[in-house]
Amino acid sequence: MQDAELAGLKAHMADNPGAVIEDVARERKVTPRAVLEALPENMVRIGAGEFAAAMQDVAEWGEVTLIVHTDDAIFEFTGAIPKGEVGRGYFNLMQPKGLHGHLRHERCAAIAFVERPFMGKVSAFIAFINVDGGIMFKVFVGRDETRALRGDQLAHFHALADRLAPKAS
């Protein structure tokens, strides 16, 4: 991406921090990772793709929302993320019902921790970024009965971000 394009993307995201990441990527013909990286610095931290460590931590948070956003659909699952383990080349989610499956964890190149406004509310999510710069899926911090972010989960989110994507000093 040329300097002018990057500056334009950064300006766009500064003015529209709640824009749908995948829509901006498609419109500007860049990767979702580039869009995440263009968010204001105080809204995003990106660390190494420590997939298993992140997923094991998230499995302790309780009810969250996992979103898979493709060109053809947006799938949302709200519930507890099951524990998983690596085997036969996949990170396997270990429960027979609800959310389960086999994730290609080795394709995870980075993990982004994002806190930004979205649809008039503060949101916080983890984006698992693949080797192609796409978003594998996002895990959103849950909300309480007043629609505020759950404080306990936000504390877990910040602790995981500090561990996997420490703030630059």
From TrEMBL:
Q: By its UniProt entry, which Gene3D superfamilies does this protein fall under?
A: HemS/ChuS/ChuX like domains
In Swiss-Prot or TrEMBL terms, this protein is called Heme utilization cystosolic carrier protein HutX
